[in-house]
Fold:
Amino acid sequence: MCRIKKVLVGFPTRRSRGALQKRNVCILARIRRHPHAKKKPYARPSFKTLRQELEAAQFEVEPQYITVVDRDRKYVEVSDSFCQLVGYQREELVGMRYDDLTAPNTNDIPTVFGLFQKLGYMHGLWLLVSREGTRILVRYEAWLRPDSYIEGHMEVVGAGY
Structure:
């Protein structure tokens, strides 16, 4: 049982401060000894679950925008989402060169295309321009298909430049 002397509490003095500290210890002791208080079992973190999450197979993300161009850099196929992104109808885009959708003064298209023909694969950033003139920065990945067409998958990084 805790014995606490009654002390007038106003400004803490050495005597009242000590009494308050003893009182707090007694209150905590009573709370700990409460008959209805149950100890909660300590749940150890499951490292196995974390390891399983880290080793889980990566999800494949479908590209948002897909284009297929020929060796003359003309669109042969475009996804509906790409049409919406750049503001053109599919019929307008098929046959159009991708040079026309590249933002002016941003890429040396003949040099990049020459490198692509040598390597057969490229990835990076490309700046497109929509029908309304909005600049759209995309991250692309493109490769040479067996039918000699170039397939490009893109995702938007930013717009309004």
